């Protein structure tokens, strides 16, 4: 049986990544990636907006290792924010700190983030820092706390498979947080390994953040958890304005439409760009059902 660990291994394999580029369309990448350019991403977002869905866009890429690439990535984020404002679409920006030079120079990364947040602030927009693997967790949270001393239009994500998720979340009270289960392979020393344990902790941190009066972006395709959140919010008098649901572009579109029609904010995470490989492999790793994208694509050729 194809395992989660197999796809996580592939997501980090440079040789396979190089060979996979030409196979992207066959593997179904086009089903979950909204094109390669800002213009293509904006067209996709507009179509989603027309269905009553709000969005966040993410220019794919990570693990930049020189200053020039980090600055270029920051400029691309700024151009994306400008395009969102110019087109008038309902959309935020998501990004990774490793794209902006976190592994090169922390101060460079901070300066890049400051410029991006100033642009977002000018446009009245919000920026989400995606959470990466465990080795970048402390640096990400430290930089977030520093940025929030100046900006209130920035948040991050907390991963439920980590033992420390509840502690980190409580220290972020009042922050707009995306709550996710987690997509990287982490050691048993720092993360739950059983799905039932992850699911249990996921719902617990959702309840914690909502009861703290903080805004929660609940990112899941699990309809059972979605139903539990709806019931919990109703039982505790939590307004629909205090949370939103989030799903990935290309996944469970019918459920996305249903949630929006019920009056909940439904935000679609829309990735775009040429560097699609690592993202796509992690999506295949998360749920066995996602492998059907690859199988259908290959059989159709």
UniProtKB/TrEMBL annotation:
Residues 41-293 form the Proline dehydrogenase domain. Substrate binds at residues 96, 282-283. FAD binds at residues 131, 159, 181-183, 220-221. One of its GO terms (molecular function) is nucleotide binding. It catalyses: L-proline + a quinone = (S)-1-pyrroline-5-carboxylate + a quinol + H(+). Binds 1 FAD per subunit. Transmembrane segments: none annotated. It comes from the Bacteria. Keywords: FAD, Flavoprotein, Nucleotide-binding, Oxidoreductase, Proline metabolism. GO terms for biological process: L-proline catabolic process to L-glutamate. Pathway: Amino-acid degradation; L-proline degradation into L-glutamate; L-glutamate from L-proline: step 1/2. Pfam families: Pro_dh. Its cofactor is FAD. Its EC number is 1.5.5.2. This is proline dehydrogenase. It comes from Salipaludibacillus aurantiacus. The lineage of its organism: Bacteria, Bacillati, Bacillota, Bacilli, Bacillales.
């Amino acid at each position: 049986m194809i395992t989660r660990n197999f796809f996580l291994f592939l997501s980090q394999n440079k040789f396979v990544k190089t060979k996979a580029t030409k196979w992207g369309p066959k593997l179904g990448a086009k089903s979950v990636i909204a094109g390669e350019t800002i213009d293509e991403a904006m067209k996709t977002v507009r179509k989603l907006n027309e269905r009553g869905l709000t969005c966040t866009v993410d220019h794919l890429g990570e693990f930049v290792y020189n200053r020039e690439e980090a600055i270029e990535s920051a400029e691309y984020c700024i151009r994306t924010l400008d395009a969102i404002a110019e087109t008038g679409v309902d959309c935020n920006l998501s990004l990774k700190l490793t794209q902006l030079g976190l592994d090169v120079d922390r101060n460079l990364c901070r300066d890049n983030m400051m410029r991006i947040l100033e642009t977002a602030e000018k446009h009245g927009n919000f920026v989400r820092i995606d959470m990466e693997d465990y080795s970048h967790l402390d640096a990400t949270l430290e930089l977030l706390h520093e940025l929030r001393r100046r900006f209130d239009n920035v948040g991050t994500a907390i991963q439920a498979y980590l033992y420390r998720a509840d502690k980190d979340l409580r220290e972020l009270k009042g922050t707009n947080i995306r709550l996710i289960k987690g997509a990287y392979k982490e050691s048993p020393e720092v993360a739950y390994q059983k799905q039932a344990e992850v699911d249990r902790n996921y719902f617990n941190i959702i309840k914690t953040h909502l009861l703290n009066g903080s805004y929660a972006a609940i990112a899941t395709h699990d309809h059972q958890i979605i139903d539990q959140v709806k019931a919990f919010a109703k039982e505790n008098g939590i307004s629909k304005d205090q949370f939103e649901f989030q799903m990935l572009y290309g996944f469970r579109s019918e459920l996305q439409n249903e949630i929006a029609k019920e009056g909940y904010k439904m935000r679609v995470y829309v990735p775009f760009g040429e560097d699609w490989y690592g993202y796509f492999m992690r999506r295949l790793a998360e749920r066995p059902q996602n492998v059907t994208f690859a199988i259908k694509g290959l059989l159709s050729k």
